[in-house]
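## retry 2 of 3
previous attempt timed out at serialization; input unchanged, resubmitting
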Amino acid sequence: MPSFQLDANAVFLVLVFAAVFSAAQAVIGLVRVASVKRKVNKRLVLAEKVGGISELVLELRKQRGLTAGGEKKGWAWLSDLILRSGLPYEPKRWALLAIGAGAVAGIGGFVLTKSPAVAAVAGPAVTLLGPIVVLKVAAGRRAKALGFQLPQALDIIVRSLEAGHPVPTAIALVGREMADPIGSEFGMAADEIAYGATLQEAVDRIAERCQHPDVDLFAATVRLQERAGGNLTGLLKLNAHTVRERHKMRLKIRAASSEGRASAMILTSAPFLVAGMLTMISPGFYGDVIHEPFIQIGLAGLGLWMFLGNLVMQRMIDMRI
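## retry succeeded, writing output
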């Protein structure tokens, strides 16, 4: 019968791996729990710091880039983008970060290309366009989260109404129980109602802050019930069903357009990957001719043509419902 012997080094390595894996899982779990707790309690923590509802409403509006009366600050398109992003409105901090990113981009462009013209273009471009890109990405993620959370929020409101609670109490329940972004939006609406606003005004402000088609549908449903009467619970049930079906349709459209999006990413990244590999393998391949005006004009034309192609492909796969 063959004998089985354990290698002490192998056992030690297995135990070390198990310990590291367990520690990593514990850290990841703690980070996830802390992140969820922070998202859920974001507005509630702020409510504990201020003195009353009036101060809470003003502070929440200030963080969203709104004045005390609810009007937007600055240019209309930029104010709408800041509202949709949901990021705290901190113009001084944003300006410092943008200037720092622009300085890093300018220095990096000069170090890589040894060209002052590239540094002069890269720095201001990142300073001016970087914040807009960040806001657009944040707005897209927030819109996706809103579309996913809204049916759950409507279900909570429906159950609360069926239990006999008034509409403001049901809205406040969503603000307490759900995570951001839907929790903060409905919480702000509940605070505004407690501060003296009507239900229709509070719901209209939710739609104005979110600027999401599903939230607009919810606001239109509440406005219709306020003006024409009817069973609000039944209307919200139908609203929740409609929002879920629209979300399913968006997922189907995304799946159907996945091939086009993958093609766009491959065709866009391939020239840059090939150029980077050639630069590392044979630095003189482009380096000997990059200063020629004909080459520079040709590369600029190819970049413009690639940009137009991406725009066309984006229009082809951008299906909205």
